[in-house]
Amino acid sequence: MRSRFVHNGGMEIFSKTSQMPETQPPQPQTTSDQSRCVLVCQHQSCLRNGSEGTLKAFEDADVPNVKVEASGCLGQCNIGPTVRVIPDETWYYRVQPEDAKAIATQHLQGGKPVQEKLNPRIHPQFNF
């Protein structure tokens, strides 16, 4: 719930309003035999940067219990092609076809995200 200021004839009052629903990309349905889903953006700027080949490379990796899907815009247009792994909520950026094998092997099969390709907006990394 959020408070909202309402001006009523010179009086200041506050009323509680329901929180606005946030618009989020549709979530693919996962079943028990498909524990993860890889979404590869296929929107305009990602396509211009080679996401069609990235999608094919993930499909060709054929990782058991992982579904690969083309998605609409994931909102990271200037650092695409974008790849999102759910339910992990791991976001990769500038993913080229040659990166798909490392992500499939190291992350999807081995459980360790590929640090070099993690989206810095979503997964900030600090070096002290």
TrEMBL record:
UniProt feature coiled coil, ranges: none
InterPro entries: Thioredoxin-like_sf
Region Disordered, residue ranges: 1-32
Superkingdom of this protein's organism: Bacteria
Gene3D superfamilies (alphabetical): Glutaredoxin (3.40.30.10)
PANTHER family the UniProt entry points to: TETRATRICOPEPTIDE REPEAT (TPR)-CONTAINING PROTEIN
Protein name: 2Fe-2S ferredoxin
Origin species: Limnospira indica PCC 8005
